[in-house]
Each structure stands twice: as structure tokens, then as C-alpha cells.
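Subgroup meeting minutes
Present: P.N., E.W., G.H.
Scribe: E.W.

1. P.N. recapped why we're keeping a running log of single-chain structure predictions: easier to compare across weeks, and new members can see raw inputs and outputs side by side.
2. G.H. added today's entry (364 aa).
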Amino acid sequence: MATHYGKHIDIEIYGGSHDPEIGIRMTGLPQGFQVDREALRAFMKRRAPGQSSLSTPRKETDEPIFLEGMDNENRLTGDLLHAVIRSENQRSSDYSSLSFIPRPSHADFAARMKYGQAVDLRGGGHFSGRLTAPLCIAGGICLQILKERGIQIGAHLYSVGDVHDRPFDMVTVNEEEFSLLASRSELPVLDEQAGEAMRKLISEARMDGDSVGGIVECAAIGLPAGLGEHMFDGVENRISALAFAVPGVKGIEFGEGFGSTLLRGSENNDPFLTDGKAIRTATNRAGGILGGMTSGMPLVFRVAMKPTPSIAKEQDSVDMVSMSPVKLAIKGRHDPCIAPRAVPVLEAICAIAIYDLLLDSASC
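Output recorded in log:
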């Protein structure tokens, strides 16, 4: 079972949560680009489990091991890039049972119906959020490539439950804010008071054997105008395809998004301005995208993450072997809120999509 993405690049993710290793194969990266391995490790650590009292206690270093596509000086060869992450702390006994009881809101039931009894669902199998780790290898490299070209990407925890961080200013969002957020890896927020309120809410959900959802806001700056296409190949389409590859994502909006439905056209439109040299907009409710193409303003989008479905509270399910109703209390190690660890993942998918978009003109 594998997963592919890309128009000019090709990304294949393989493996399952409790397999000895998970990995990525990728083509389309520039020959000769030197990867900063320490920066990549730091980026991967932001997503890794066991880094915080607010996340799962499962400990994984998520150290990328490059088997192909990178030389001894960390330069990309331009050939197939193949990297793996060894699993060190899987505990498959948490999932052993003579019955099959699908966990509510997991992929268990649908996967069993599609793939049959042989499907591996230990820790979520190939449907687990753990598969975002190799995705972050690709995204972490793309972030470095884009930075060299003057494009910066950052994200923050926009909300947890009903607690909201200060949103990005969609006109003036900047690199300094991105650096600040990267340094606050446990709860990457702009407003530390909001972060403390989020911490309290997540801790309360954990103590109650429950979970809570959240929203991640991501932005990209330094983009040229005119990337993307209309209709089926727009910037929104390319980013959304990757966003929904992240387990737990249930919605996405760009710019003002659903909030624009509360405005009149005269309020929602972004007036054009010029200094005689360049054209920009006074506001950026469009989120940097017009007709599926970048406008040159910051690209801003938000992604909704559902509450972690693995909870200790007793839930109703069905034993698919005996076809009888059962009560299920999920064992194992799980995040009471998956949104904080999803922040670098959304940066990664944004970087992959933008890098692929940049190759549109190169392939013409």
C-alpha cells in the first residue's frame, strides 16, 4: 500500500505506524542542492512524538536515514531520493485482539471493508498520522529550497477548542513571526496567554480521557504573482490535495474563507494599490490567491483538525466477527490534541505544493 503525490515531482509514502520502518521516495528535486541536515532534524523534531506533556508519550526520534539521492556532502544527486525512518517504540500489543472492533471516527471500518481482514491497522497502520513523518522529510527539504529562493513559510496554532490565538495579519505577516513560532514548538502561538489557555484546555481533555480539536493557520511570503492555474489546477487545489492527506484534517479555507460569506462585496474586495513600481492590495481577504493563481500577496490558509478519535472514554462500537454491539475504551498512547504537532506538517505540505507549482513554468 503506497501513496503518491505530485505533478512535476513524485512523492511516494510507504509503511505503517508499527512497521519496522516508514519511508519516502521522491523525484524532481534539484541536483546539487546542499541540504542542511541539522535544520532538517530540528524541523522533524517539531513533529515527533514524545516531545511534550501535551502529546503522546510514544518516543520516536524520527531521524531520517537517506539511502539514495544524497551524497556524502548532503548534496542532492537529482536522482530518486529514498529516505527511511526506523520505528523504535511501537507497542503492537495494544492492538492485539481475537475480535475486530472498529474504533469510532478511525479508518478501521472503511479500511476493513475495502481491503479485507489482511489490512494492518496496528496504531492506525498506513492511515496513521505517523505517516506525516516521511512527508516532513520531503517538506523540510522543500522549505530549504524555497528559502534560498526568497520564499518563507510558517504556521501557528490558530485555535484549540474555543480558545483562539492572534491571527496572522494577512498583509504584513513576516519572517520574524515565523522564527518566533518555530522556537515555540510545544505550543506554537503568537499570543502566549492564548497558549496557556490552550494548554489548560488540552490538559483538561486528557484528564477526562477525552480529546479536543483545533485549527492551524499557515502562511507563505515572497511568492511571485501568477503561480497556478484556474479551475482544476489552482493553488487551492494543489495545497488542498496535500492538506487532506494529513490524517485528522476535516476542512480548509483560504484568506477570509467562510468569513467572507458574512461580508458584502464592497467589504470583501481587496483594493489595488501601486507605488509606481509594483502593484499590491490594501487588504488580503483573498489570502494571496485570485482565480486559482497567486497574487503576490502573502498566501494564507487555515486547516481544521478534528479531535483525536482515540480516547479513553467508553464508546459504542460493533464486534465485526460476532456482529454484536460492544463497549470500547481505547488503549494505547495518543495525543489529546493533534493540532500542535500538525503545525510543522502543514508547513511541509505548503512547501511541497509551492515547490511543485514553481516547476510549472520550468516545464513549459
